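FW: tagging you since you asked about this chain on Friday. Here's the raw sequence from the shared folder, copied in full. Didn't touch anything.
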Amino acid sequence: MASLFDAAEQVHLTNALPLAARMRPRTLDEFVGQQHFLGPGRLLRRMLEADRLSSVVFYGPPGTGKTTLAHVIAAHTRSVFVAVNAASSSVKELREALAAARDRLAASGQRTVLFIDELHRFNRAQQDVLLPDVESGIVILIGATTQNPFFAINSPLLSRSQVFQFQPLSRDEIKLLMRRALADRERGLGDVAVDFSEEAADFLAEICDGDARRAINAVEVGVRSAGAQPVAFDIALAQDCIQRKVLDYDATGDSHYDLASAFIKSMRGSDPDAAIYWMARMLEAGEDPRFIARRIVICAAEDVGNADPMALVLANAALQASEFVGLPECQLPLAQAVTYIAAAPKSNASTLAIGEACRDVREGRTVAVPAHLQDAHYRGAKRLGHGEGYQYSHDFEDGWVDQEYLPVNKIYYRPVDRGAEAEIAKRLERLRSSRRATRPGADADLRTPAD
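HL: got it, structure written out here
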């Protein structure tokens, strides 16, 4: 039986919690956000209503409700909630938690929600320890991770789990949670008179980046640090009560590759505004500018190509300038190159050409170098017939003469009708027409782009 001292101790412990922890919802109906899988008729809601929840992985950024929802699920299923942090727990501790859950189920029939925070930090052996008790239903496993589970979690455990991806909370959802905390007299700040301006609410909802915990705790700092009541919670106070946001970025993780992908695809898609934004995200998060510069050079060659040959020149100049001046000034040549490449006409004709040629080299029969193209600059070459019959292009009108350079009839480079490559296409067509005129049937089996 709990004593008055126990009750007082519990009150002190609760009061010591940050506001965001005190305001955690206690039921599914109180939970805000993630309606794409928790809304009426959605998968997780159906699993809970059918009491068929076994093992799930909650994947998403901080402050989106992963831990909170685990607590709610434990209460909803009338299970004991046991939390383990993968960063600080050993296999021994994990086995003890599983054994206790097994004994509890056998003795009272009560199940255990085993919540493992930062599940991706468990090694393979630790993750494998979970498998038997997850399969037999001894525990309801809820693993939380900010890393892509398909990279960070072992396949055997992942195959036995349902993955739910958490999204950052919307501005309206953040504002709802802040106002709920201000109104709640039992757990929140309802006992304090606060004039919470709409401008301050909008600012916090925006700058917290979908992280409800940061926004709610900023509200508590502002209210508790203010002097006289009612508290005038305006935008100036809001700005003083929240840190400059820390961007979610891991140079080896999901956000790194997602941002780089968005950056490249925006340049390729001719959207300089989007490309600049994604580059700014990477730079602000601490990405190596050389990594960004290399992506720009690749995009200039792969996606602009000969539609605007200056793109590669500018990209390479930006790369060299980045090496020379460093941060923060290297943002300027990088931005110049990005906007130029994004706005330039696009062609991947040279990219397709080298890809197709490499594929033929790998998979087809090797083509011998014709004798007239072979090196003739050594003693004995003439006796072998090397270089015999070669015609020097500059000796002829227009700097071109029809001779065989590739023994097989194959077109790899097919210029597009955009930018500077349109002129290249016209010149190549004239040369190919001349070749057909002097060598009837020479192009008979040449493949066209449609092939």
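FW: The first helix runs from residue 4 to 16.
HL: agreed, and DSSP finds 21 helices and seven strands in the chain.
FW: great, closing this out.
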